[in-house]
Amino acid sequence: MDGDIKTIGAGLAIALGALGPGLGIGLLAGKAMEALGRNPEARAPIQQNMILALAFCEAIAIYAFLTAIIIVFVG
């Protein structure tokens, strides 16, 4: 019984924790492509800022994954 609750909790942690970064990455990529279409000369700064923001989004997803792992193995 306790293992089932931990499994559900871990699943919810990673599911909800990956939802935000997934949406953020999708919106970020779409807006970056839109900006590049409007101003192709600004490719370097747009690309640099996009990669930085993608790293932050990925970090949030990794935190959610680590939280799920902790719930399964430590809780």
How many domain modules? 1
Range of helix content? over 70%
Main sheet summary: none
Number of strands: 0
**What is the typical, i.e. mean, pLDDT?**
92
Determine the CATH superfamily. Answer: F1F0 ATP synthase subunit C
Q: Count of helical segments?
A: 2
Distance between the termini: 13 Å
Report the structural category. Answer: mainly alpha
Question: Helix and strand succession?
Answer: HH
CATH architecture: Up-down Bundle
Strand content: under 5%
Residue windows where pLDDT falls under 50 for at least 5 positions: none
What is the alpha-carbon Rg in Å?
A: 17 Å
From the structure above, extract its key features.
2 helices, 75 residues, F1FO ATP Synthase, elongated, 0% strand, mainly alpha, single chain
Q: What does the secondary structure layout of this molecule look like, with pairings?
A:
Elements: H1 2-38, H2 43-73
Give me a quick take on this structure.
By secondary structure, this protein is mainly α. The chain has helices at residues 2-38, 43-73.
What does this entry look like structurally?
By secondary structure, this protein is mainly α. It has helices at about 1-40, 45-75. The chain has 2 helices and no strands. The mean pLDDT is about 90.
